[in-house]
Every structure is written in structure tokens, then in C-alpha cells.
Fold this protein.
Amino acid sequence: MIVETLQGWIDQDRKHTALKALQGLIWEAGYRNADFTAPIYPDAAQTLRRWHALGLPLYVYSSGSVPAQKLFFGHSDAGDLTGLFSGWFDTEVGGKREADSYARIADSIGVKARDILFLSDVVEELDAARTAGMQTALVDRIEDYPQSRAGDAAHGHTHVASFLEVELPL
């Protein structure tokens, strides 16, 4: 019964706390044993390193727990990227499709929302970030989304196919 419930949550892409905790345990063991590394797009790792070198503060906001985020970025196929980030946020700050979550993040890091660029491949998350006042960019990779989400599908967000296309400042 438990396995079926968990599999159902995975199939539904549910962000349930228990599922995320289990994911974290599996990741911790797998990374510790070097059974796998976290896949990072080469353009993303390159751009994050460049932005960090420019002195830009970088933050992660994910539906995965903060410990899981640190495991992921600490054991990526591009090496340990954790040192690039100034902070980490998960759904403890609120849901990723809720504007208040992004306002809380801006308050937490002490930056005006209008001075923050939020990148995502989820249009509804970008909508929420924009509602909170943030700049947004839809990362629409052809390998992930064969049908481009440009135009109306992008809801007016800046549209890029890779991190290399992001122009600062927006």
C-alpha cells in the first residue's frame, strides 16, 4: 500500500513533504556512495559560475527541500556548485505558484523584488514571481519542451532556450 501511494504521488508530480523526505534520503545515500551525480545543463553551470564571478548573489528556490537542493548542487556532474549560491529556499517559504512566496524571498534576502531575476521552466511559477514584482525569464529548452512556448504560451515572460541567452540586466 505504501509503495503504491508513493508511486501515485510520483506519477502525479505531487510535492508532498513525505515524498520529498524520502527523496532526500535516497539522494543522500546515492551521492555519498557516488552511485550517481546530479545532471546540470552545461550552459547552466557555465552561466552560474560566470554570474557568481561577477559578484551576483544567486539563490535557489525549489520544491525540493533545502538539504536535497544542497545534495543536488553539491554532487552535480559539473562538480560542487554549492559555493556559488548565497541562499536556499524551499516550499517552507510558500508554494512556487503563489506570489506571496516570492515577496517573502525578496524580503528575506533584503532585495527589492524588481531587482531580482527569477528563472524557471514553469510558466505559472513565473506568473507568480512577476505578480510579486520580479523580473522573469522562461527557460524553454528544446530537449525538455519540443513545442516552443514562445508567444502567448510564454505569458509575456522573456523567453530563452538556454542560460547563455539570458541578458543582464533585464
User: Anything to note?
Assistant: The CA atoms of residues 142 and 149 lie 10 Å apart. The beta strands are 59-61, 87-89, 117-120, 135-139, 158-160. The mean pLDDT is 91. The longest helix spans residues 17-32.
